[in-house]
């Protein structure tokens, strides 16, 4: 533009100078490199020692901000609980049903609200490399509320160094809510391409949608978040540094809680201990304090530490590596078990998982899943989550899969689908066996969840007096066991009596006295359980109390009583179930 203001003669002269300049620069520019040279350079770069994060006591980290003590005024600021003004209780009840989150409250809290910096004090003094990998944050959603989704996006944009945030990739898993259509597209336009929106053409479920998001992303690292999170102060560099050092590492932030009713932000974990992810034999996800040896391997309390598994929702991983190990098994349906699949695969096939205490992300725990699975997986035998577990167990756990079948006997009959591709992948990646994993990585599982003794009997337990079945009534102790209709399709009435005399139901055990029969925490060590079952007399004998399981007809009440062979209230039939 400016050139046209100049007179003609000057214009020519200027053009001449510009052309000469360009030619000169072009002459001195390095010639384009041959492919071979490029390849060599890449290899050299790969093996160059990477700069590690450095701890400098008292010196604020390079990506950290100076402390500020003022919290802005406003609803929910500082992560404080908010009570909606003029709240209509009917409306609240209705949004809780629809979203599992109080959206009336959420809509009144700023999308850019402040939250407390809950990190350990050391975290402010870590200095990270300046050339960390670029990152695509992948967020899958299905019928998510407007303000919770947008607050997730805002928090990522506000609290990530822009040079490392390549993009936020949103994957809409076939939502049908109006606000997630044109309105969302209009809204993200302000972010000028930094927030991209992909949409599934049919319902795919969380697992497949995530793989799709990773395939479509452009960053060197993919970082998965739930659609109702708020990332905390300086959350990103600590997650990227371990991957930068070694691109087979998966990193997991520490998750804080955001209350689903008040949006209060509060840590779930106490400050002076670290927890890591494990599992029990029914494949329920569990956490346990990190073993002393892992603690001692590190110089600083705030350093990352190894974990056998992860909860599933939130983690970062090198994108190429994630795709190389097959991303998620595409045969897994919707949700559940994918965290174990990825954990076992990463560890057994040469990678590792670390939890990163200095990276904190708040997550709204909903009381239930406010949507159905739709038509997904309806043509397979068995409940979806258990089918997923069966795939994972069959592909990765070798002889240890027997403990899963002991814990979930019905699963033997389920159809997990074709596993040949997953088994071929395991072979191709030359992965180690599960025994290696148990010995070297998940060695603390057995302290908490010993190998299960074999079942002598399993199934529903029917009374010969009333033809009703034992029902634990709840999955959490202390709960009094009662009676209800048999033939429930739900698995919560399937009991197991093992060789050690433990009577189990789900992950819990049954004990009793002369007043009640109760659900209790299974005792560790598993020696000398209290129960014996006699297949001839059909009676349950409690070895410690020396009494029998007894049902009183009139009050339908259970307790232990003197054994009496002619009393039908003491006769029980164990019946295995078929799908
Ligand atoms: C990366 O981590 C894996 C698993 O812990 C290890 O076997 C490998 O040697 C590491 N690679 C480098 C370059 O440090
Ligand atoms: Mn969630």
TrEMBL record:
Record-annotated Ricin B lectin domain positions: 458-575
SUPFAM superfamilies, per the entry: Nucleotide-diphospho-sugar transferases, Ricin B-like lectins
SMART domains found in the cross-reference section: RICIN
Cofactor (UniProt): Mn(2+)
Superkingdom per UniProt: Eukaryota
Main location, first listed in the record: Golgi
Record bears the keyword Transferase: yes
UniProt-listed Pfam families: Glycos_transf_2, Ricin_B_lectin
Keywords from the named record: Disulfide bond, Glycosyltransferase, Golgi apparatus, Lectin, Manganese, Membrane, Metal-binding, Signal-anchor, Transferase, Transmembrane, Transmembrane helix
Transmembrane segments: 12-30
Gene3D superfamilies in the record: 2.80.10.50, Spore Coat Polysaccharide Biosynthesis Protein SpsA, Chain A (3.90.550.10)
Enzyme Commission (EC) number: 2.4.1.-
Membrane topology: Single-pass type II membrane protein
Localization per record: Golgi apparatus membrane
Family designation: Belongs to the glycosyltransferase 2 family. GalNAc-T subfamily.
Name of the protein: Polypeptide N-acetylgalactosaminyltransferase
Gene: LOC106460855
